[in-house]
Amino acid sequence: MAEPHRISHDDLLTRIETIFTRAGVRADSAKAVARVIAAGERDNCKSHGIYRIEGCLRVLAAGKVEPDAVPELHDSGTAVIEVDARGGFANPAFYAARQALADRARKTGIAALVIRDCLHFSALWHDVEALAEDGLASLSMCPSYAFVAPAGGKEPLLGTNPIAFGWPRPGAHPYVFDFATSVAARGEIELHRRAGKPIPEGWAVDRDGQPTTDPEVALNGAMLTFGGHKGSAISTMVELLAGAMLGEFMSKEALDFMGGASLLPRHGALILALDPHVFAARSGRDPIAEGEKLLTAIGAQGARLPSERRFAARERALRDGIPLTDAELAQLDRFEAMGLAAVAE
Amino acid sequence: MAEPHRISHDDLLTRIETIFTRAGVRADSAKAVARVIAAGERDNCKSHGIYRIEGCLRVLAAGKVEPDAVPELHDSGTAVIEVDARGGFANPAFYAARQALADRARKTGIAALVIRDCLHFSALWHDVEALAEDGLASLSMCPSYAFVAPAGGKEPLLGTNPIAFGWPRPGAHPYVFDFATSVAARGEIELHRRAGKPIPEGWAVDRDGQPTTDPEVALNGAMLTFGGHKGSAISTMVELLAGAMLGEFMSKEALDFMGGASLLPRHGALILALDPHVFAARSGRDPIAEGEKLLTAIGAQGARLPSERRFAARERALRDGIPLTDAELAQLDRFEAMGLAAVAE
């Protein structure tokens, strides 16, 4: 294998931004979308890195995301702030509301952000990390596409429904987890299918709800949640809180709306932000210092904190540049030169 | 086996209330504690039913819970309401704050209740069911005693850290889940030890962090969370949000404070309440009707919703009475007659 090229994070950011502006996306949105894609690549989350550009361009080409949508902030001064992405990408909507959300959480202790009607393709850790930078704890969740059966069931009703949590740490990367509530990603099953390899037990069921290790049968059946009935319960909660409660799509409706899963999903998202200092005030304790006792003790016994690998990749990338292959660089060139024509059928 | 005796829910409630008032517990607290214990028995949650009376009496006898503590409500009009249990039971503190929490959630969309310094022994579903009756979605969590190792670790740092969620359903029992984030209850490992049976793989590790199926080794080692690193991340979140963030004990400190696990734990608790109608308002949709689409579809494919078994037991109990054995009735008699002397060493 040839030595990969190395590109600086800033250069990659600029290139992705250019791709999206040339594809007709409003400057602010292009910047926000480029930011999360470059961050994914920087953190070696390949599935949320430049790999996502093509998917975004395809939704743009299909006219299923508004390239020039300006997020609309609705803030009536309560603990619930809303931002309507108006059919645009989720990321610019989040950034448009981030300051208001953080300010409100600091004032009232807890605040919620509702993101409406957005094209959602990025990992949730961006949002909870940003809020941790603001000194806030946060919890973020959203539905996706209905590929997952509830525990004991057989028909896909639930999405892979990610859930993310962030907690600020002084002088260190925040405590962040971000995972799908499905036991595996759909892409992993597809990779097994292509390789002609069985999938592990517990990943999926066939159309009759029977366990299967055949990836083809799994893709036509339903995926399962992590953690059995407990994970299924959490995934259902995500549908209710980040779908039904907001009056936005749940995973089944999102799939129906897009007419299949070939395009990235459109739905809403829910982010809760909590100010630990407000919650702890009456105790006289420093909540962040208390949290450190646990987090350092977890590290001290040799257990890995979630996101540790990602943060290590980030440090390497910021120091040495982001490694990209010839094919990846060629694809960036192509997207930059051809715009939406690059993804025309 | 002899036919069990049947006692009505109201009669059982009165008997438990009498036991606690005779044990010196303030009338309002005795009522609140009796209510959750009778409800546990009614729902056939034997581990949270009258089995718990002895544990409560033992903490009272040890002077580790304040029998006459009057919960102190602190409400400064923000989205965070606090109630200080002042070393008393958690349940009267929750009831003292329930109305304020529900009112605030309806006004601001989301509100949090911090319960401080409480003796916590009951299941969390009581609280989320009560809030569902008020038309609110809610999420409740608390630390416990440090018996559980983080994923990849070996020393117990996390509690069994339960998490519960409630969602209102029209004309039906609410959608409620309530589970420990540990893969099994500590009591189940103890039962395996007594029966001389190995525990299933994945329940626990030995002191070196190696998997074990020996219940004795497991009890001296550490339990594991459900769902691998994902469950471990969620359990860590519970420590941070319901321990560190509140300035209340995390599970390790709770264990140190009580000087061992023979008594029920004292710590805080966090409950978030959300008004779906506030969140959905701008969408023009009915969030409860939307939620029904998912919940009825889960039922229609033959999958069981969490708590279904419990609700079925409740319906039987309210119709036919609550079945109790001779031994259980004799124990109620004894506690009623002897008070705290019944649990003297």
From TrEMBL, chains A, B:
SUPFAM superfamilies from the UniProt entry: L-sulfolactate dehydrogenase-like (SSF89733)
Gene3D superfamilies linked: 1.10.1530.10, Hypothetical oxidoreductase yiak, domain 2
One matching Pfam family: Ldh_2
Keyword Mitochondrion: no
Highest taxon of the lineage: Bacteria
Keyword Cell wall biogenesis/degradation listed: no
The entry's keywords: Oxidoreductase
Family: Belongs to the LDH2/MDH2 oxidoreductase family.
Name of this protein: Ldh family oxidoreductase
Organism of this sequence: Gemmobacter denitrificans
